[in-house]
Structure formats: structure tokens, C-alpha cells
User: Which sequence fits this backbone?
């Protein structure tokens, strides 16, 4: 009961601030609402007994990525962006395509509703002091080692790519 | 009834005590800081208010609260007002997991001297305190002024850089204690019979250096360098709003000190908790041991400020990325190998 109430509270905050992120004219205001969305997603994780995920969500997304977003935003002229038009001329086509996309999504979810139901675990997932973090760690380094390593190599490639792009620019200038 | 006492009344009382004591503590630290630095520079420090200037911490807040609250005309009002609050709240709620002492008996009821013992305690402290920097950046941007913007940019770059090394320096301790809970880490130090500062000396030094940088204190106080940026990110703030930033900075100093004590100096444990001959030291209650150790760290903060000149910006980045971070990673690797050898 409590979990459900928490889910609806955090879910509402997340959705409302996500809408505000894209409707705000000022980019910095968007960033603040993005923080609201990310924090309420962390709240949902907490309500689902995924403490480790909630902590990582806050430290990576709010403490790391969002701070870098704001850092970059401050280096560009925010005043100009507030006067730009938020919708361009293709909004009718965009509306139709996104409506089709939502329709597809709803259809897929409706058709596959039986497979989405997860089996109830026989024992409670969180036990003892180290519970959740330990399980995430064991999962990542045993069962899902290969996907985990592939993801980290992907990130490494992205970092190297960013460095190469940045280097090239300074050399040609 | 039992449930109400354990999960509603007691936590509320503890939270109330923390919220009341913390600002008083900050006031005391400001006086101590001015006195300590004054003595180090062969001055007397504040002497006018009360005997030996002891009432100065009361005079300061009164002055701050009576000042005019100025919001610059071209400032982003909404963000300008929110920024100090965004900085202050994380600085305070971090104290929910800091273990100030062991479980004690009050009128036959066991009372824990911490609000809660999270199983992700260390992660909680790191993640919550990483939100604080957002308030500092927003303050600098919302002021719509050059110096605050520069200060905020410096602060963001500095805090993001040093957070990485800080996280790595903690990992050594976590490998030894095998838990993220702060209470668990203190208990692990009791059962191993050694404070982790002896097992992780490199990590300890790294942690404190990065902690000083995270709190924007000398010699890492570039974001608020008086001589070049006026006051950095809070140049345009006055009166009450300025005091919120001030409160957050000093609360963060206490957090870093308390975390250093918990992770490396055995929290509320007496020195050498396994040596029977020193059992008489247990006469001093755990919470007092904790307080003594924290005060020592706060004294170091003041000592640093009185002794060292400020880093230059490029030096700051060089130290963080080219020296502290590789050292922290090396420490993690060495600790992992040694733990594997000795523990099998």
C-alpha cells in the first residue's frame, strides 16, 4: 500500500517535471526540472527496495551529468535561447508520427502483457546489511559479466571519440 | 507504542537535536576559526563583543539577519532564491546517517546515536553531498554578474574533478570493511582491532585533501577567491541568503571531518580498541571520542587556511587529475591484491 502511494507521488512529480523540462523557455530552468525528474526516479527505486540503484542514480545523474549540463549551458548565451521559437514548422507531421509510435507502444504492451509479469521471488530480495549492493555487484560480475564489460568498452570508445574530436578542432584552429 | 517510539518519536527527537545543534556548532567554529588564525598570525582576533570576544558568534548572525536582502535587478529571481536552499538542504540531511556514538541506554530503552543506519550509508553521503554543487552553480548563474559566474564555473569544475578521487579513496576502506553502512564500518574497525588509518594511510591522506577541495576551503578556495573574484559565487548575495551559503559550507566541513573520523579513525571507538591495557579510556563516552576527533579535523582546516597560499587554477586541475586520481586508483588496486592474498 505504502509502496503504491510512494510510486504515484514520485511518478507524478517525475512526469510533471519531465513535461516542464521541455516546455520551459529558459534552459537553466529546464535543467532544474530535470533534477526533479531524476530525483523522483531515485525515489521510485527506493520504494522498490533498490537502494544501491537509487544512490547511483543520484550520484551519477544529478551529481555528475546534470552538473556538466549546467556547466555547458552557462557557457552559451541563455538570453538568446529564451526568444527562440519552441516549435518549428513540422509539428503537424511530428504529431502524427509520435501518435503512431505511441499507438505501437500501447499495442506491444497490450499484446505482451502476460510476459511482463515477473515471478514473485521466494525469498525477500533484500537481506542483511549489505543486501542490495552485494546482489547488484554479484550480478554484474558473474551472471552479466559480458554485457557489463561490453557496456564499459562502449563508454570507453565514446570517451576516446570525444577526446579525438576535441583535439582535432584545436589543432586546425 | 514500541513502533511509534522507535520509528516516529525517537527519530524526530534526534533530527530536532541535529537541526538545533548544527547551526550552534557552526557559530562556534566561526569564532574558533577567527581566534585560531589570529593566534597563528600573532594577533588577538575578535575582542570587543563580550569577554575575549566570546559573544561574537551571537553578534554575527544578528548583523547578518538585519542586513538588507538585495536581489540584483537583472537576476533570475526564481533561481536566485532557490540556489541557497538547494545548497543548504543536502548539507544538513547528510547528517541522518553519521553515527555519533554506540547504542546507549536511556531509561531502559536502547537508543542509537544516529538517526538511521542505511545499508548504502557511504553512497548516500556521497550522492547527497554531490547535489550541493548544483546550488552553487545556479547561484553563480542566477546572479547575472561576471564574478559569480566565474566562481561558479571554477567551483563546478573543481568539485566534479575532486569527487572522482574522493570516491576512489573511499573504495579501499570499503574493500576492508565489506559494507557500505557507516555503523558497519565502525564495527568492522572494532573487530579488526585497528583503525583503518593504519591499514589505508594513502587513502586517508587522499580523502582529506579531496574533502578540503570539495568544501571549497583554503588552499582550494578558488571559487571564492577574495583577491580576484571579490567573493566568487556569492558576491551578489547579502544578509540571510548569504548566511545560508555560509551555514552550508561550514556544515560540509563538519561532514567531511565526521566522515574522515568514521571511515579512518574508528568513529566513536577509543584509540587501539583491542588493547586491554587502555580499557580505562572507555570511561570517556563514545560520543565524546567522536567529538574530539572531529574537532581535531576542524582544527586542521583552520591550520591549512592560516598556512598555505591558494592554488592557481591550472595547478589545481593538475594536482587533481594527474596526481591524486592515479594515486587513488593505484591504492585501490594494491588494496585489492593484498586483501586477496591475506584473506584468500
Assistant:
Amino acid at each position: 500500500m505504502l509502496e503504491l502511494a510512494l510510486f504515484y507521488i514520485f511518478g507524478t512529480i517525475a512526469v510533471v517535471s519531465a513535461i516542464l523540462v521541455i516546455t520551459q523557455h529558459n534552459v537553466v530552468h529546464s535543467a532544474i526540472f530535470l533534477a526533479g525528474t531524476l530525483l523522483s526516479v531515485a525515489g521510485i527505486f527506493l520504494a522498490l527496495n533498490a537502494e544501491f540503484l537509487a544512490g547511483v542514480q543520484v550520484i551519477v545523474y544529478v551529481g555528475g551529468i546534470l552538473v556538466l549540463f549546467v556547466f555547458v549551458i552557462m557557457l552559451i548565451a541563455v538570453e538568446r535561447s529564451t526568444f527562440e521559437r519552441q516549435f518549428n514548422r513540422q509539428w503537424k507531421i511530428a504529431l502524427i508520427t509520435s501518435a503512431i509510435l505511441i499507438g505501437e507502444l500501447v499495442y506491444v504492451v497490450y499484446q505482451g502483457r502476460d510476459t511482463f509479469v515477473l515471478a514473485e521471488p521466494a525469498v525477500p530480495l533484500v537481506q542483511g546489511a549489505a543486501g542490495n549492493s552485494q546482489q547488484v555487484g554479484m550480478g554484474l560480475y558473474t551472471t552479466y559479466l559480458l554485457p557489463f564489460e561490453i557496456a564499459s568498452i562502449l563508454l570507453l570508445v565514446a570517451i576516446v571519440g570525444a577526446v579525438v574530436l576535441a583535439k582535432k578542432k584545436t589543432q586546425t584552429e | 507504542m514500541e513502533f511509534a517510539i522507535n520509528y516516529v518519536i525517537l527519530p524526530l527527537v534526534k533530527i530536532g537535536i541535529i537541526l538545533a545543534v548544527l547551526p550552534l556548532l557552526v557559530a562556534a567554529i566561526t569564532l574558533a576559526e577567527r581566534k585560531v588564525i589570529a593566534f597563528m598570525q600573532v594577533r588577538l582576533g575578535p575582542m570587543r563583543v563580550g569577554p575575549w570576544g566570546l559573544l561574537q558568534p551571537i553578534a554575527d548572525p544578528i548583523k547578518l539577519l538585519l542586513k538588507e536582502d538585495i536581489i540584483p535587478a537583472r537576476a533570475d529571481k526564481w533561481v536566485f532564491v532557490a540556489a541557497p536552499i538547494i545548497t543548504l538542504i543536502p548539507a544538513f540531511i547528510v547528517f541522518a546517517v553519521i553515527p555519533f556514538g554506540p547504542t546507549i541506554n536511556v531509561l531502559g530503552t536502547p537508543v542509537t546515536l544516529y538517526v538511521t543506519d542505511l545499508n548504502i550509508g557511504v553512497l548516500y553521503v556521497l550522492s547527497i553531498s554531490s547535489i550541493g554543487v548544483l546550488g552553487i552553480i545556479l547561484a553563480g548563474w542566477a546572479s547575472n554578474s561576471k564574478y559569480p559566474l566565474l566562481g561558479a564555473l571554477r567551483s563546478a569544475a573543481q568539485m566534479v574533478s575532486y569527487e572522482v578521487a574522493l570516491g576512489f579513496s573511499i573504495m579501499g576502506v570499503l574493500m576492508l570493511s565489506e559494507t557500505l553502512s557507516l555503523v558497519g564500518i565502525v564495527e568492522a574497525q572494532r573487530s579488526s582491532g585497528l583503525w583503518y588509518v593504519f591499514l589505508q594511510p594513502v587513502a586517508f591522506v587522499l580523502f582529506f585533501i579531496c574533502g578540503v577541495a570539495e568544501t571549497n576551503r583554503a588552499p582550494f578556495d578558488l571559487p571564492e577567491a577574495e583577491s580576484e573574484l571579490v567573493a566568487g559565487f556569492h558576491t551578489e548575495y547579502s544578509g540571510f541568503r548569504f548566511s545560508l551559503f555560509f551555514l552550508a559550507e561550514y556544515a560540509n566541513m563538519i561532514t567531511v571531518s565526521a566522515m574522515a573520523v568514521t571511515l579512518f579513525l574508528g568513529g566513536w571507538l577509543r584509540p587501539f580498541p583491542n588493547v586491554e591495557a587502555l580499557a580505562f579510556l572507555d570511561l570517556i563516552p563514545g560520543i565524546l571520542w567522536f567529538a574530539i576527533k572531529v574537532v581535531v579535523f576542524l582544527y586542521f582546516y583552520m591550520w591549512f587556511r592560516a598556512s598555505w597560499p591558494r592554488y592557481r587554477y591550472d595547478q589545481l586541475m593538475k594536482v587533481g587529475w594527474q596526481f591524486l586520481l592515479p594515486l587513488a586508483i593505484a591504492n585501490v588496486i594494491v588494496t585489492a591484491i593484498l586483501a586477496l592474498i591475506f584473506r584468500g
